[in-house]
Design goal:
The complex is a heterodimer of chains A (213) and B (592). With 213 residues, chain A is an all-alpha fold. In chain A, 66% of the residues lie in helices and 0% in strands. Classes of the chains: A mainly alpha (213), B mainly alpha (592). The interface between A and B is large, with 48 and 57 residues.
């Protein structure tokens, strides 16, 4: 295994003065009261994105609750494959965490393995969601059938798109991990992991909203 | 290629990378600004057609049939089914594609790195993507005029069922679908911009630039970005569901039992009010997305040309924060006639009136800044004072409309049209002009012509009031805001002279903007060359060349030692102390 020794990208201590890294050329002096926060710029951007995605699903949630109260609501049966999908996605969060720790300890081999497993689990989850759709379709439950089925297809689709975005990011990280471009403090894997846990939690939330409460 | 100065990256050389697919925040800001001005031209022309119709509803305009045969019948009378398209697209384009874009995406992108002492935005590639996503949104909106049935016609608020049923009106066909798609592109673009704004302002400030040394323009941009990130998703959710109702047969918003052309629709039990809640959860913060930048510009410009510190900087910051927070709690005041519980309506009314408190704080602080100042009446200052004037005039009617009993009386009349054109549209428009005249030297390295600028201001200011103030009287007499021909009611016939006055004034207002366009283009090539700091202002953008180079400062970034408003400091030789001047370097009268 080849370990790169020269610093790559921008992490704490390795500051890209142009775009990344808080404060850049003028790091804040203690007590100067200005400059950057002690958080990586990309992390702030990601957390802001997660807040705005949360607001999107808050919007859907309020619509769901209002529409459910408005009448004509026939609950749809829970496609059993969703239990399996949920389990797979939870496991993928654990493997993603494995990848993050592997990078911390700079074992690039383990990083590649954990990232690949996560990627496969993510794809399997999306496949499983399609199976759930087919299951409902076989029972004659389609998008316009009733408000609950409309929300089920809508929310799983929007969640699936967000997970697909995570898969694309994961794919980029995986390729770069394969090229051994990462050092322990490179933020990309951590950012990817944060997003992945978020879409995982989001799915658990949607599962509860759609079938439990 | 040669290496530039220290800390200054290479500027891209090819025309395409430099001006079209640029990553430089200044180029992207100007791209946004110019695109928004073009959309303003389109939306403004739509307003002119509305005004021709309302002043002379029965008069034949054969010349318009020749130009717009789809809109006018061969006798030169406007086809009534297309009139809603005009006000729908005028509102949509103006609110989102002009007044959210030019001040926020345009000046925000241009100013944030320059005023906080950064070389660029945090995510330049995302910034470029944001502009081109917006550009596609513009193309989709413009294309919607040319599809069968014309552009969307369900109002800028796109209330279902009108917007959800494709057979309902001509504009409900492909026009409404393209409206939704265009809005999704716009929201995606605004979200990318918002992420960039928040991150850049939090994390790329130069040394010494603490949050409480930020110019108020930057505070406004920060709050606008947060408002956008938190409120636009509600509209995204609504827009997706509306699209599903239109094309995939769902019933989120469409109730049962709607009959169109003797055919019962298949929708069951949807809730049109649900859309209104989702729309206005965005819609009200959106109003402040338009207004806050103008308030920021006004604060910066008034302080410079009054040569005085802005009165109570901290109170100004807290007022912006209070307005932003309250703006999430008042959306129901747009829905007083929806049959909501009077108790809920009361809560919305109280929060609405509460917004008057931080708003009044801002107004009184502006007035206190002007109090006993030696005011320099430059063009940007005149427009900044115009913002204050319009904010007061429009704000007072806001206190009326915020109360359910009065709102129920004048809801959907021209009183409301008068209110929001004065406060929201007017303040935002004057904000764009104030900012343009003020920052033009930093954008293009030349000054705009002052004589033409003042002529533009006075014509715009007078005709703006003449156009929109009389609408209060129309509204109080009951004239409906979306009416095609008011003279069909005897009740409104006596109001026709007011409508004619408004229209003539609107034409002058529109024509006066040609002075601005001429001044703008002429000044880019022939204007007086600007030095670094033509207004003798304190903020950081004035410490670099005009126009600022790629990377914003040749050499190291400036370091900040003080707040942005130290004008006429007692004992100092100069009447301004820029933010980057160290305490030891300040020339005082004693050490002269």
């Amino acid at each position: 295994m080849v370990r790169k020794t020269e610093p790559q990208g921008s992490g704490p201590g390795i500051v890209d003065s142009w775009h990344g890294g808080g404060g850049g050329e003028n790091p804040p002096e203690p007590g100067a009261g200005g400059g950057a926060l002690p958080v990586h710029t990309k992390q702030i951007g990601l957390w802001a994105l997660l807040v705005t995605i949360s607001m999107l699903f808050a919007g859907f949630t309020s619509a769901y609750l209002v529409r459910r109260a408005a009448g004509g609501w026939t609950p749809i049966p829970l496609p059993p494959v969703l239990w399996l999908n949920t389990f797979i996605l939870l496991v993928s969060s654990a493997t993603m965490e494995g990848a993050r720790r592997a990078l911390r300890s700079w074992s690039l081999g383990a990083l590649k393995r954990w990232l690949s497993v996560t990627m496969v689990l993510g794809v399997v989850f999306l496949g499983g969601q399609v199976l759930a759709w087919q299951d409902l379709a076989r029972r004659g439950i389609f998008l316009p059938t009733n408000p609950h089925s409309s929300f089920f297809y809508l929310l799983t689709a929007v969640h699936g798109l967000h997970l697909l975005g995570g898969l694309i990011a994961l794919g980029v990280v995986l390729v770069r991990a394969w090229q051994e471009r990462y050092t322990p403090y490179h933020p990309a894997v951590g950012l990817c992991a944060t997003y992945w846990h978020f879409v995982d939690l989001l799915w658990v939330y949607l599962f509860i909203l759609l079938f439990v409460v | 290629m040669h290496h530039g100065h220290e800390g200054n990256h290479e500027a891209p050389q090819s025309f395409l990378r430099r001006y079209i697919f640029s990553l430089d925040h200044k180029v992207i800001g100007i791209q946004y600004y110019l695109t928004a001005l073009f959309m303003m031209l389109v939306a403004g022309l739509l307003a002119m057609l509305i005004r021709i119709q309302l002043a002379w509803p029965q008069a034949a305009q054969p010349w318009l049939h020749k130009i717009l045969p789809g809109l006018y019948d061969p006798n030169g009378i406007m086809r009534p089914e297309y009139y809603p398209m005009l006000f729908t697209m005028h509102g949509t384009l103006m609110v989102f594609f002009v007044m959210s874009t030019a001040p926020v995406s345009g000046f925000g992108n241009f100013l944030i790195p320059l005023q906080i002492g950064a070389r660029d935005m945090a995510f330049p590639f995302l910034n470029m993507m944001s502009y081109w996503t917006f550009f596609v949104g513009c193309l989709v909106m413009l294309a919607s005029f040319f599809v069968a049935g014309g552009a969307a016609a369900a109002g800028w608020t796109a209330y279902p069922p009108l917007s959800a049923l494709r057979e309902a009106i001509p504009g409900s066909q492909w026009g409404q679908t393209l409206w939704i798609v265009g809005m999704v592109f716009f929201i995606a673009s605004f979200t990318m911009g918002g992420l960039n704004f928040v991150t850049t302002i939090l994390n790329l400030r130069t040394r010494g630039m603490s949050m409480f040394r930020l110019p108020l323009t930057i505070w406004a941009m920060f709050c606008v970005a947060v408002l956008g990130l938190l409120s636009f998703p509600a509209l995204t959710a609504g827009a997706i569901m509306l699209l599903f109702d239109r094309h995939f047969g769902t019933s989120f918003f469409v109730p049962s039992g709607i009959v169109i052309a003797d055919k019962l629709t298949s929708h069951q039990g949807g809730s049109p009010l649900l859309w209104q809640h989702l729309f206005w959860f965005l819609g009200h913060p959106e109003v402040y997305i338009l207004m806050l930048p103008a308030m920021g510009f006004a604060s910066d410009i008034i302080s410079v040309f009054a040569r005085k510190p802005i009165f109570s900087y901290r109170a100004m910051v807290y007022a912006i924060l209070a307005i932003s927070t309250l703006s999430f709690l008042v959306w129901g005041h747009h829905m007083f006639v929806s049959g909501m519980s009077p108790y809920l309506g009361m809560a919305f009314a109280i929060f609405t009136l509460l917004i008057a408190v931080p708003s009044a704080v801002k107004v009184f602080n502006w007035l206190a800044t002007l109090w006993r100042a030696k005011i320099h009446f430059t063009t940007p200052m005149l427009f900044a004072l115009g913002i204050v004037s319009l904010f007061i005039s429009g704000g007072l009617s806001g206190i009326w409309l915020g109360q359910a009993p009065i709102d129920i009386q004048v809801h959907d009349t021209y009183f409301v049209v008068a209110h929001f054109h004065l406060i929201m549209a007017g303040a935002a428009l004057f904000g764009v002009f104030a900012a343009t005249y003020y920052w033009f030297p930093k954008m293009f390295g030349r000054m705009m012509n002052e004589t033409l600028g003042k002529l533009h201001f006075w014509l715009t200011f007078v005709t703006y009031y003449l156009t929109f103030f009389p609408m209060h009287f129309l509204g109080l007499r009951g004239m409906m805001r979306r009416i095609y021909d008011p003279t069909q009611y005897d009740l409104f016939k006596p109001l026709q002279p007011i409508n004619e006055l408004i229209s003539i004034s609107a034409f002058v207002l529109g024509a006066a903007q040609l002075i601005f366009v001429f001044n703008f283009v002429w000044s880019i090539f022939r204007g007086k060359k600007a030095d670094r700091n033509p207004w003798r202002a304190n903020t950081l953008e004035w410490t670099t060349e005009s126009p600022a180079p790629h990377g914003n400062w040749r050499g190291p970034l400036p370091v900040v030692y003080r707040g942005p408003y130290e004008y006429s400091v007692p004992g100092a030789v100069e009447d301004y102390i820029p933010q980057h001047v160290a305490p030891a370097e300040v020339k005082t009268v004693g050490t002269r």
